[in-house]
Amino acid sequence: MELNDLAAFVSVARAGGFRDAARQGGVSASSLSIAVRRLEAKLGLRLLNRTTRSVAPTEAGLRLIEKLTPLFGEMEAALDVLNVFRDKPAGTLKLNVPSSAARIVLPAIIAAFLKAYPDIRVEVVVEDGFVDVLSIGCDAGIRYDERLEQDMVAIPIGPRVQRFATAAAPDYLDLRGRPVHPRELLSHACLRGQFAGGATPIWFFERDGEVLQLNPSGPLLVRPGAAIDLATSAAIAGVGVIHLFEDMLRPHLDSGALEPILEPWWQRFSGPFLYYPGRRHLPAPLRAFVDFVKALNDAG
């Protein structure tokens, strides 16, 4: 059994398609397709269900991935031991992060890290839903404390205190009025977000120990990620009220394109954490990144 064929199958299954796997691995999609078909022919089993839009493992494929994942992990760890003979660590660091971290946290860290470790390649997978970072082939993730797994090591990364900000365009507020209490938003056009699973995040407000939860309606509903830019643009255009990370809205608040409202009610919350498996041996790229983040925390 060709090891490369097994690796090709795992990469395609993890990426959810031949094109994405080829792009991530720097190979051609046709070579991956040939490798997977050759593996299926040798095994006499179909491992992937293919449609024109997606690729997903069969039950047999899922069982094979389950057995192969720890084996490939052990192989990577064995090769990573060689990093001690290098002047600087090398390899790939794969991070799973929410879109908010990709916009707020990583820009201030990744550039400096890559300059300090030019032989390390960083792959960033943006995923707003909660996932098992190990099962999808990532080394570490960034999440907030309420979504951390108990058996993971977690260290602070990025700003330690954040706020959700509420804002709208001055023209919109001139027309619809400026709310002085969060409940007034129930009669406003609110621009909402939605998780991949379909849940719509509640808007939280807090003042003097009083916490309010609102589920307002509005003309626009977007999934996180790049679609957040669409919601922000709609708010700037005067379509409605937006409720988002203050760091994301700050440039527009400072420019006057958006006007802050209900600021005394903006809820504060603790910043995100970098989390990774609590095993003794960490791959060299991950160890370098952990040490880099810890140094930033000590300096800050």
TrEMBL record:
What does the UniProt keyword field contain?
DNA-binding, Transcription, Transcription regulation
* Residues of the signal peptide: none
Q: Gene3D superfamilies given for it? A: 3.40.190.290, Winged helix-like DNA-binding domain superfamily/Winged helix DNA-binding domain
Cross-referenced SUPFAM superfamilies: Periplasmic binding protein-like II (SSF53850), Winged helix' DNA-binding domain (SSF46785)
Which PROSITE patterns does the entry link to?
A: HTH_LYSR
Ranges of residues in domain HTH lysR-type: 1-58
List GO molecular-function terms, semicolon-separated: DNA binding; DNA-binding transcription factor activity
Similarity comment: family membership: Belongs to the LysR transcriptional regulatory family.
What is the name of this protein? LysR family transcriptional regulator
Annotated organism of origin: Paraburkholderia ginsengiterrae
